[in-house]
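Q: Sequence in, structure out?
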Amino acid sequence: MLTLLPLEFRKLLGFRSARLGLLVSLLLPIVWAVAPRLSAVMGVPMTSGWHLPAVSYGIAIQTLIPLFIAVTVAELIGSEVTQGTLAPLLLRPVDRVKIILAKLGAALTYPVLLILATLIGSLIAGIPFGYGNFTGGTGLGPGMFQGVGDLSSGAAFAQVLRATLLAMAMLLPVAALALLFGVLYLNTAAAALATVAFLSIMRLLVVFPESIQKVLLTNYLNLYTWYGQDPATRMGLGASLILLLIYTMGFAAMTVYAFDRRDV
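A: Exactly. Output:
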């Protein structure tokens, strides 16, 4: 599997959808930084470069990044089916499980790359605002943008880093889900649509009791803004991470099972 993983990773980065997703994630924060009404829309003045990661994450994660993940990860299976390279690959003396685990490994790296691209773009876009100490919050810690007083650059960086790691973790189940639908449908468009539809339907379940909401994957797609979440509909941070791990491993296990028995 270790020899297959770099190959699958190169395939992923070779997709136009993957490169487009990374490029958009990198450039969008720069757009937010020069938007004339950004402060008015956010309700707080943009006085520090440390504000940009929260703004970028808030817009991209709730809209674009799950879509990028759904399309690109689904393409790991769909493109090979379309090109007719998957069936010959399975005829070789290579374990099916190793093949799908390599694809899974590549799929799970893509959300990490998207978040890193967004972070880098945000830090570049925030240079004109400066990264010194300021009064207020980063939007990713206690008090959100209002903060709880003076904030040092070191503390602000710690909040951004923490939010970045949480954003990566919360998107891993989406990548695993997209790969699962890729195996089930063997078609990029159908798998991407199924992934987006699954997440959209799950978001609609907010009308159910709070006990059910606490185990919904979509309730944790803003985990990076931990301090801004409603305690009534979320679990503690440790339990939330465990739940995301269960989702990721569950989708991954179903993917391996389905691929091992799928007739392609």
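The mean pLDDT is 87.
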